[in-house]
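User: Sequence for Lipoprotein below. Tokens please.
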Amino acid sequence: MNRILIPLIAGILMVSCGEKEKLADGELSQETIESMEETSLVNSEEISYEGTFKGKINGKETELKLNGDTFETSENGKRAHGNWSKVDDGTIIELEPKSGTVAIKFYGWSDNDTWVAMTGKDSLTYIEPEQYLKRIPD
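Assistant: Structure tokens for Lipoprotein:
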């Protein structure tokens, strides 16, 4: 029995004590970076943009309808419409009103049923606490 255990333990120790990549505090290994990139990639072709989304943004009942490259929104009964466009990789959209005004011009994609409100003054960041619009059936 000892003849089997000693080589088995020695093999386990050799594998587990092999030379590891030394990283500075807070530095990510190449394997970790590649894994994060694989899991975070979103193909904008898979995003379902069109539809009607509702929620409460900054205390206002908000409805957003995306159809083709146009949008229509209602914020507490005040309507606006215009065109929308994708920003960067398509996970953020920007509303460009032709009539009326919109309180939130940028929305970030969370999933195909959720758009999250974003500020867009200096940089695109999520509003805290997170506020979002959920898809409703047409």
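The mean pLDDT is 82.
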